[in-house]
Design goal:
globular; alpha/beta; binds thymidine-5'-phosphate; Rossmann fold; five-stranded parallel sheet; 225 residues
Length: 225
């Protein structure tokens, strides 16, 4: 049976991961590879509906908002659907799957940001995702300040242009994002074989320089035909 290759992109809002995913997808496709790109949450009809509930800053309740546990459960409902509908069939067909965020986001945002703890997230991952792990995770971890400024600017523009509201997470405090940043560092140190940090405090963090680093990394890892 053909066997695909599963790559996830991770990082804080505004880290530049989505731009890099698109560039890698175009480059791999130009070299003749079959590429399937998706994002969590989203990319299935159910996932798109879950995404708008999760990210809309008007998602309110009598408790003031979506509770942390409900938020975690919705993230995993979206993920279960995307695995069944997109990721597993694409891998079985031999494609390279590029996913913008996966369970590391839940561990960083819900586990650390919302302080639900890693164990609960990893248990959900086992129960709901059958412990499906990426072959490679590309983590963009530029300095926290730069990501925050970029994310907040981008979301204002998005709201003005598209009329959609995806601001719920961007309204969180700097402490929330500091915990997430720390969690990503922790996860990367725990799983160095799977996770590669391609942008950090040192070196050239221009879009082009990161793109070249990602290409070199992926070329070295992809199974040859
Ligand atoms: P995106 O804008 O990178 O697509 O991410 C959407 C937001 O959802 C982002 O603020 C991170 C958040 N998120 C979580 O909190 N937990 C998760 O498991 C995922 C996939 C995203």
């Amino acid at each position: 049976m053909p066997n695909g290759y599963f790559i996830t992109f991770e990082g804080l809002d505004g880290s530049g991961k989505t731009t890099q995913l698109r560039r890698l997808a175009a480059w791999l496709a130009a070299s003749g590879r079959t590429v399937v790109s998706l994002r969590n949450p989203g990319s299935t009809p159910l996932g798109d509906r879950i995404r708008s509930i999760l990210l809309d800053s008007r998602s309110e309740s009598a408790l003031g908002g979506i509770t942390s546990l409900a938020e975690m459960a919705l993230m995993f409902a979206d993920r279960a659907q995307s695995i069944a509908e997109v990721i597993s069939p694409a891998l079985a067909a031999g494609s390279i799957v590029l996913c913008d965020r996966f369970t590391d986001s839940s561990e960083a945002y819900q586990g650390a940001g919302r302080q639900l703890g890693s164990q609960r997230i990893l248990a959900m991952h086992a129960a709901v995702c059958n412990n499906l792990l990426p072959d490679l995770t590309i983590l963009l971890l530029p300095p926290l300040e730069a990501s925050l400024v970029r994310a907040r600017r981008r979301n204002h523009r998005h709201a003005e242009k598209e009329g959609t509201d995806e601001n719920r997470f961007e309204r969180e405090s700097d402490d929330f994002y500091t915990r997430i940043h720390g969690a990503y560092e922790h996860i990367a140190a725990r799983e160095p074989h799977r996770i590669a940090i391609v942008a950090n405090d040192d070196g050239d963090n221009s879009i082009d320089a990161i793109e070249l680093r990602i290409r070199a990394l992926v070329t070295g890892r992809l199974p040859h035909d």
